[in-house]
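notes to self, project folder thing:

trying the whole complex as one job this time. last attempt i did each chain seperately and stitching them together was a nightmare. three parts in total, labels are on each line so i dont mix them up again. if this works i'll redo the older ones the same way
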Amino acid sequence: MSETPEQFTFDFHKEKAEILRASDDLQIKIGDFAGPLDLLLFVIRQEQANIFDIPIARITEKYLEYIQVMKKLDIAVAADFLVMAAQLIEIKSKMLLPRDPLAADDEEAEDPRQELVDRLLEYEKFKTAAGMLYERSTIEQAVFHRGPIETDGESAEVDATVFDLLTVFQQMIARRADEIKMEIEREEISLADMIKNLKRRIFEEKELSLMRFFEEMRSKQELVTAFIAVLEIVRTEAVRLTQKQTFGDVILRSVTTDAH
Amino acid sequence: MSEAVAQQPTRTPAELVALVEALIFVADEPVTSKVLAEVLDEDKGAIAAAVEQLQSEYEARDSGLQIREIAGGWQIATRTEFHEEVRKFLKTRPSAKLSLASLETLAVIAYKQPVTVPEILEIRGVQSATSIKTLLDKRLIVAKGRKEAVGRPIQYGTSKEFLIQFGLKDLNDLPSFEDFEDLVQ
Amino acid sequence: MSEAVAQQPTRTPAELVALVEALIFVADEPVTSKVLAEVLDEDKGAIAAAVEQLQSEYEARDSGLQIREIAGGWQIATRTEFHEEVRKFLKTRPSAKLSLASLETLAVIAYKQPVTVPEILEIRGVQSATSIKTLLDKRLIVAKGRKEAVGRPIQYGTSKEFLIQFGLKDLNDLPSFEDFEDLVQ
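result (full assembly):
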């Protein structure tokens, strides 16, 4: 830690430790950690353990403790965190196994922790790189540019990526699917159904206000269907149209019932 | 308004000039001395002196830029003598954003090619004539023969230019829905 | 491209410096020496000299602005020291920072590019779909073809926007990955 290269001094774990120290209880959420390796590194630091000689039993216990706290706060602990917990337990149990006495003396038995340590070391480098990016973006946010001026649109080059293309295409397909679904829903009332419906209403209610009937229509398409239905029913059935005053409401009245 | 003398920052005159320059630069319209004085918590006399200093510096070093007084405020602008070069330069600027309509049309053509205008209409639900013209002008799409259907409509597809601009080796490189399935949950 | 010696404009070096300044100023993103050379019909050497001259002039006079090399081009920007005053003036707050997860994913992509989603998972030990989506939305990363492997997964790399937003000349401007080894205690 002595020779920290110039500017990349940002340390997420230190920050986190300070935040934790500031608050009394363990208000930790899964979102506070970028992943299981992040949490594991954090635990190792908190316990001031040597990464090259991890006291696996203690660290596993602490890791599980954190997972428990998270479980209480978050509805579901992400699967990746649980996978890591399982791996830790596996390593722990491997380490409890007695050394194979048949193994050659000179050949030091493979440390069950080795793979995990390698992963942690590799991961920590990326984590440091993330800290560097964080610092860089902070510096960049302190730099300002001249506001945009009008550009002319004749140039050939295009400011878009294939991802934009796909996104737009997806949104378009989704939008069209919605529209088509709505159209289908609307068209569900066919002329035949409309006539049947209208007939039932007239025979049930004896008198039907056309204005009210038309007002019930939910779309232009339905309204047209309704209108045709009225024309059709007047033409084929014993139904009478009456109007009390010019431009007033028109009442549909069944005449067949009267005749019987 | 800014009588808070206690808070008066200790700046050298040179620092104030530099600050004034930075603020005039980032502003999207001419900045008045009054605004500068308030933001920097200086009095208007100091601001006026700084702007004057800045102006004469720009003059003295024959800068390509000038500090202009416009509509009662200060602004950085290119020197008028350079208008020809500036205009020529602006014409070469890329970064022309495609409108959403054009981007949509291009997406349909890219994923459904070869495709006719009525087919594009069918998918987008709106007329796409203007967008198709834009895309043809930008050489992102090309006509690819006619469809053996009523009216024998022209079919469109993407061009080689399209591949170049979108950094694709060939059309198989286009991302598919499956590629992003996990991402778009 | 600009071999038209007959048309070579007769400019003094100082005029060229001024012109370069004007063009960098009007550009809304970093301008390459190549573009400047073409527009001004000068050779790249002359442009490079002019930019260098300009840069040292800005330094020398303690300007509030700076000439920076970003994403392979030149750009005028305010000096970082003034960020507080500038922000106060523009009434802006720092824009939303990337989450820790997104920063990590971006770091993996920056140093391992081109890299696929499973490879990122391998390093980070956690699903990165949401982060990748965020980074794509912010245009910090782009799809870079497919890997010739089972399922031909999409590979990701950083974009020009990444260079701009992180103030990098080019990818070589990133600290080398080995440098981070010293930090791991």
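what i see at first glance: The beta strands of chain C are 65-70, 73-78, 115-116, 141-146, 154-158.
need to look closer tmrw
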